[in-house]
Design a protein that fits this description.
Blueprint: E1 4-16, H1 19-23, H2 31-36, H3 48-69, E2 74-78, E3 81-86, H4 89-105, E4 110-122, E5 131-132, H5 134-143, E6 152-154, H6 157-165, H7 167-173, E7 177-181, E8 188-192, H8 206-225, H9 236-250, E9 259-260, H10 276-290, E10 294-295, E11 301-302
Parallel strand pairs: 4-6, 9-11
Antiparallel strand pairs: 1-3, 1-4, 2-3, 4-5, 6-8, 7-8, 10-11
Helix pairs in contact: 3-4, 6-7, 8-9, 8-10
């Protein structure tokens, strides 16, 4: 018998960017796209639909791996988007972080919203759970607020609610909850800067901050150099999403951590330079320069100026 359950918690809504244009054949794919995504030649004749299905398979695997890692969290995939929710607010944040990081590492651009509030779910697993509530509506609205790139916007209740649920966990990652100004409408939005660290550990130590910066800049380098994002930038909107993501993941901003570096990219490079070889070269360069970081009297961590990129 179907029954409804009311709870309070976090809802994370995530949506793949550029997928509608891809499935509506508004993007012209080339052989290199299929090869870099390792799509079987047997299916390449199906064009955009098979290419899109291949991306959805990877997205589904990322969600499944995350679900096995955080069993207290609920997951629903609806084609190119997903809802993630639980009363365990810490694990929703960790799930959000894992999904965003793993998607981008695999060449998938996505954007999300996190909200706190009422959640109504049922126990029907045959058709897929029914999900509604103000937290669900707010999460979707935040994702659709107009931010460009792979950001995760959140409502103002998220940090306070997380503090009440697990103040120790919040104290370890509180720097990652920051506002930003959207250049499209000059509105101030609250953001979970998930991209600042892959491990979410030791963010209050110089060693941890340096490692987190390496991870963030390598993520930015992937956006800048890896050919898996080539199909995205063939539309105006996709180009903006990739460029925006590359810019804020490589930004030399010090409102999160006191660190100064010169690996900051403003414009996307030519398609001919976007190769796995060049990405690996830049990633090694970033890691190598980090070994010579210095700390000044004010506690500012400085990366050395690279000789070349």
């Amino acid at each position: 018998m179907m029954s409804l359950k009311n709870l309070k918690g976090f809802v994370f809504y995530v949506d793949l960017l550029g997928f509608t244009a891809l499935t509506q054949d508004k993007i012209q794919l080339i052989e290199d796209d299929f090869n870099i995504w390792q799509v079987s030649k047997h299916f390449q004749t199906l064009g955009n639909q098979e290419f899109a299905a291949n991306i959805l398979i990877i997205f589904r695997k990322i969600l499944a791996n995350c679900q096995s890692k955080y069993p207290t969290v609920n997951f629903i995939q609806l084609s190119d988007c997903a809802f993630v929710w639980s009363e365990n607010m810490k694990d929703v944040i960790l799930s959000c972080h894992t999904i965003m990081w793993d998607c981008l590492q695999n060449g998938i651009l996505c954007r999300g919203g996190i909200a706190h509030g009422d959640i109504i779910e049922d126990n029907n697993t045959n058709l897929g759970q029914m999900l509604l509530g103000n937290a669900v509506s707010k999460a979707v609205k935040l994702e659709q607020a107009g931010a460009k790139g792979c950001r995760v916007l959140m409502d103002q209740e998220v940090p306070a609610s997380l503090h009440n649920y697990d103040s120790s966990f919040l104290s370890k990652i509180y720097q990652l909850f920051q506002p930003f100004e959207n250049p499209l409408d000059y509105q101030i939005y609250d953001e979970f800067k998930w991209y600042y660290s892959q491990s979410l550990k030791d963010l209050n130590t110089a060693k941890g901050i340096i490692q987190a910066t390496i991870e963030r800049l390598c993520l930015a380098a992937k956006l800048q150099y890896h050919p898996r994002f080539n199909w995205n930038i063939r539309t105006k909107e996709g180009y903006i999403h990739v460029k925006s993501s590359m810019r804020f993941t490589s930004a030399n901003e010090q409102n999160v951590f006191k660190i100064d570096h010169t690996f900051e990219w403003i414009d996307l490079i030519d398609l001919k330079i976007r190769t796995e070889t060049n990405y690996n070269h830049i990633a090694k360069k970033i890691q190598g320069e980090a070994s010579s970081c210095t700390i000044d009297k004010e506690g500012l961590i400085k990366f050395p100026v690279p000789m070349d990129l």
